[in-house]
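Q&A log
Question type: sequence-to-structure
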Amino acid sequence: MSSIKIASVSVFILLLTACSIWEPFVDRRRNAGVTDIRNLYVGKSTPNNPAICSNPIWTSQQTVQAMADAECEKHHPGTHAVQTDIKYFSCKLLLPTRTFFKCEK
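Response status: OK
Response body:
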């Protein structure tokens, strides 16, 4: 392999890792300035149904569960998260798994 190809691949990998998000996150975004609750959230997550984006290679299911439990507790004290669905390749490139939960007593 030529040194130009190796350098190009190395730069690509460096840029990919520098620009990517590695930490799991709650997939909730808000429409700015919207007051109608039906159109308030843009992401898949809502206060009653948290959705967590993660990568199962480096994020354990226990971590994802704890994040969902924290979201439920924040919006509905005394509740915990119960997993309802999981979709693969539906979030970000390096965090491809979206796990859906429902807050229950």
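Response note: The two ends are 59 Å apart (CA to CA).
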